[in-house]
Amino acid sequence: MRVLIVEDEHKIAQAIKKGLEQETFSVDLAYNGNDAYDLAAAESYDAIILDLMLPGMNGLEVCKKLREEKNHTPILMLTAKSELEDKIAGLNTGADDYLTKPFAFEELLARLRALLRRPQTALKNELICGDLTLNTQTYNVTRNKKTINLSKKEYALLEYLMRNKGRVLTKDQIISHVWDYNSNVLLNTVEQYIGYLRKKIDRNFPSKKSLIHTVRGFGYKISEENV
Ligand code: CA
Asked: Which parts of the sequence belong to the OmpR/PhoB-type domain (predicted)?
């Protein structure tokens, strides 16, 4: 999952980025409202962590502008003030949740996960495809009840595929949700990682159906049905 952090206090921004990267997110940073807006409009984020007080456009303005343009990326608003009006203003402009500074990283993570879960609340923390399961809370991946060890990138790629089970994803879509802006990712990097996943998910379970499918000319999908 790819997240944009917008925070003008560099130290806080870097700390959140580091924390989220440890949790397998790919993270981009913006230090002012205008850069935040430009990035959010150009890239595909799964969530935006948006500070309220920013140089340039403030957080409320960024949020309002994105929503006016039908950008529905979940937004978690950060505010240094705990006043009721700020929260109400934030939610009225289309933020999905807010967090008052200072906060514990664990709380930020919990709220972020809750936002990412919203479209599929029924699934709770577990993504399932046939006998393959991925727990987004514990990062535990199993097939046929056997634990599969994945690198952070492999996990992030698998999570993105599983959140879009049955849908064909292009390499460009995969790159924009699994890698951050600063990574120099080539299309064949995606092929390479799909290859790693295939080995661990499919080839290591030869008696089981293949779950990762190549849709020639389009991209990849995960599905328990044969294409
Ligand atoms: Ca600020």
From this structure: 124-224
